[in-house]
Design a protein that fits this description.
Layout: H1 12-20, E1 32-33, H2 45-53, H3 68-81, H4 91-94, E2 95-98, H5 101-112, E3 120-125, H6 130-137, E4 141-146, H7 162-167, E5 168-174, H8 186-199, E6 202-206, H9 223-229, E7 238-243, H10 244-247, E8 256-260, H11 262-275, H12 281-291, H13 295-315, E9 329-330, H14 339-350, E10 352-353, E11 355-356, E12 374-377, H15 382-398
Parallel strand pairs: 1-10, 3-4, 3-5, 5-6, 6-7
Antiparallel strand pairs: 2-8, 7-8, 9-12, 11-12
Length: 399
């Protein structure tokens, strides 16, 4: 067996299930899950109809590179959404469809890491656990940058020692952040691009929450957009990951893409050809329909906006929490109770599941920045989110 498998920690939800198994929730209260970031809004009907209309295409093998029509739809979306310079990005050279970004983030590290040179994979902390697992299985050492309230939940990249950057082969970014919802600004992204040039590492920007924001006039900036603003139209050393899971409420479609540096993607395509991970043609055609429509995405944001407003109004003065820059998570700081006790007691007394923050963080520089926080995903219906907020308020008032 691969000895690196022994480095993997149990997935956060395995830890959560063990924690919940120690207590019994009240049977008279319906369970409300705020733990898993699985959208519960209705998928777009026209996308589902596209799936139905194209079911016969199941009879065809898909290619790893995907349909040209899908890659061009994605390229067009990127061009419009992130204001890329005309002609700088095309579906032939700069886009690869993937079966959800989870598998792509993991696979990308396997393809780009040179395990013979004592590599580091640098990641925010707390983080999406795939980043850590991808590093270990690629033969690299993860290096975590703490995201705390003091730094606005954005890593202090200026404080990273030069020797870390020198060993870094892959920098994972997550903007908007999971779990914090913090958005990295353009100036910081451009500073990181300069560091990537200086130390020869690749930036992999996980932007799966980029379409869940509150101000319609200020969508989150992306890494390719930061490239475009400095005329870096080859997107050298820069790749982004996007998905239809959150944007379009289609987590089960397992559809996303990787885009950016054509040279890097060409090598990643070679890896994926052997990996055997082509997206079914039926799913590709449904994805084209989703990427070509913004109406359902705006309606999705409206629904999340209503939930955040309602929940934060109820919790105001009872929980140390504020609206994030973007995403569908709340990341409250817990006062007077540990995140473990908070999650377990909330389940035992109110039948609500939240994720203890320490489960998605690691100790770095003497602290686990997830401790004394909880991740709450406002993915349930408005009515359920309001009910959950009322129960949490009651739980906190009881002490």
């Amino acid at each position: 067996m691969n000895p690196d498998l022994t480095l993997l920690q149990p997935y956060p939800f395995e830890k959560l299930n063990a924690l919940k198994a120690e207590v019994t929730p009240p049977k008279d209260l319906a369970h409300i899950a705020l733990s898993i970031g699985e959208p519960k809004h209705e998928p777009p009907a026209f996308v589902l109809q596209t799936l139905v209309d194209n079911l016969p295409r199941i009879a065809n093998y898909p290619t790893t590179k995907g349909l040209p029509e899908l890659r061009e739809a994605i390229a067009s979306w990127l061009q419009n959404r992130f204001k890329l310079n005309k002609g700088s990005l095309n579906g032939e050279d700069h886009v690869l469809p993937v079966n959800g970004t989870r598998e792509a983030l993991f696979a990308f590290a396997q393809a780009v890491i040179d395990r013979t040179s004592n590599p580091l994979v640098v990641s925010p902390n707390p983080f999406y656990q795939i980043y850590e697992g991808a590093a270990f299985l690629a033969g690299a050492e993860p290096h975590f940058l703490n995201c705390t309230k003091d730094n606005g939940y954005i890593p202090d990249f200026d404080a990273v020692p030069a020797d870390v950057w020198q060993r870094c082969q892959l920098l994972f970014l997550c903007s908007p952040g999971n779990p914090t919802g913090a958005v990295i600004d353009t100036a910081t992204l451009q500073k990181l691009i300069a560091l990537a040039d200086e130390h020869d590492f690749i930036i992999a920007s996980d932007e799966c929450y980029s379409e869940l924001y509150f101000d319609e006039d200020r969508p989150p900036v992306g890494l390719l957009q930061a490239c475009a603003e400095i005329g870096r139209d080859d997107f050298k050393r820069c790749v982004v990951f996007h998905s239809l899971s959150k944007r379009s409420n289609l987590p089960g479609l397992r559809s996303g893409f990787v885009a950016g540096d054509a040279e890097v993607l060409n090598k990643f395509l070679l890896y994926r050809t052997y990996h055997g991970c082509a997206m079914p043609i039926t799913s590709q055609l449904a994805s084209i329909a989703a990427w070509n429509d913004e109406g359902h995405v705006k309606a999705n944001r409206d629904a999340y906006r209503a939930k955040f407003d309602a929940v934060l109004n109820i919790l105001d003065g009872h929980l140390n929490v504020s609206k994030p820059d973007a995403s569908f998570y709340l990341w409250p700081q817990l006062d007077g109770i540990s995140d473990i006790d908070f999650a377990q007691r909330l389940f035992a007394e109110q039948h609500i599941t939240v994720l203890p923050g320490r489960f998605i963080g690691r100790e770095a520089e003497g602290l686990n920045p997830g401790e004394n926080h909880a991740r709450m995903a406002l993915v349930a219906t408005l009515e359920e989110c309001v009910e959950a907020a009322e129960r949490i308020k009651h739980f906190l008032q009881k002490g």
